[in-house]
């Protein structure tokens, strides 16, 4: 989902279009061109109606982008990493990679999007009114009214306090600020989010059964997506909570052996591969770590090429593998992990390579945890009180 064609870069944020954005653009154009315009203005020539519909769809996608951009810009101002927006079938997604740090930051970032949508809706409504008074063509007035109405509807939907909708994020940050317990706040907001998602699925089913309309299928898809996203947020929070305060050095696999990057895939499989590992750091001729080769990347090499291709032809170069320091918080390091290195992070103490964090290391930590240090405030029974 973090992929797609780069279409613009605004305020330091990359805006990408996933192929599925074409689906939403087509649906919007169809809704306007075959529904709204012919019903409201039946005398509009078909070509004009479809052209206006396409323009309307693009303007709506632009207003969705403005909403996401507001989230990203406020996040960046508050020191949270947010470099990408992806436009896709359900609108836009801001990829916020950094951690929220505080309830206030999450509240401001969550509220920024709906605020922009509110402004857009009011502006479109004002423009439609001014154009109507000034005697502008009815089609233009209708487009502005439609943009105002859709943005207003999206605003109301977005403010429903169901995670991960913006309303749910606002609720989570408010609960978090009040109770000082982020995990509990997330569980509550995510449970409401899941319940709401299933409610939407149910409504969609009812709609399909009663009217047989396509809109019901769409509702079911949105509900399913919301319920899944709420569950992922809850899981992510559980991971974050169990890693809270842990340093990279406590979690990483220490000094894993590196493999020369010039050996062939065949040689590697015969002499170095172990069934327990999913990735191997590699070293160049100078002995320095020069990349990371994943088992999945090796699997993609056809058997006929295994004796000729070297690891350096299939590995991820070291400058593209996320790196961390041993004293860093694991939760901070994890915000950088990417798909290319399949969740692996190389750990360097200055120039020296000291370890790797793999998804298995994180899993182990979550599963077994760490012994909690004894509380400092209450002395163990039997010990003399400290004066
Ligand atoms: Zn939003």
How large is the count of helical segments? 13
Give the termini distance in whole angstroms: 59 Å
Give the strand line-up of the largest sheet: 1-2-3-4
Class computed from helices, strands and strand pairing: alpha/beta
Number of domains: 3
Tell me roughly what share of residues is in helical segments: 55-70%
Main sheet overview = 4 strands, mixed
Write down the oligomeric state. Answer: single chain
Order of helices and strands: EEHHEEHHHHHHEEHEEHHEEHEEH
SSE arrangement:
Layout: E1 5-10, E2 13-17, H1 21-40, H2 46-77, E3 82-88, E4 91-96, H3 103-134, H4 138-158, H5 166-179, H6 182-211, H7 214-243, H8 248-251, E5 253-254, E6 259-260, H9 265-271, E7 279-283, E8 289-294, H10 295-299, H11 311-314, E9 316-317, E10 323-324, H12 330-334, E11 345-349, E12 352-357, H13 359-368
Parallel strand pairs: 2-3, 6-7, 10-11
Antiparallel strand pairs: 1-2, 3-4, 5-12, 7-8, 8-9, 11-12
The structure holds zinc ion.
Task: Explain what you see.
- The chain folds into 3 domains: 1-159, no CATH class; 169-244; 248-368, CBS-domain, CATH 3.10.580.
- It is 55% helix and 14% strand.
- Helix 2 (46-77) runs parallel beside helix 4.
- It is built from 13 helices and 12 strands.
- The strands form 3 sheets. The protein has a 4-stranded mixed beta sheet. Strands 5-12-11-10 form a 4-stranded mixed beta sheet. Strands 6-7-8-9 form a 4-stranded mixed beta sheet.
- It has helices spanning 21-40, 46-77, 103-134, 138-158, 166-179, 182-211, 214-243, 248-251, 265-271, 295-299, 311-314, 330-334, 359-368; strands at 5-10, 13-17, 82-88, 91-96, 253-254, 259-260, 279-283, 289-294, 316-317, 323-324, 345-349, 352-357.
- With 387 residues, it is α/β, with parallel strands linked by helices.
- The longest helix is centred in the N-terminal third of the chain and has 32 residues, at 46-77.
- Residues 67, 71, 113, 158, 166 line the site of zinc ion (ZN).
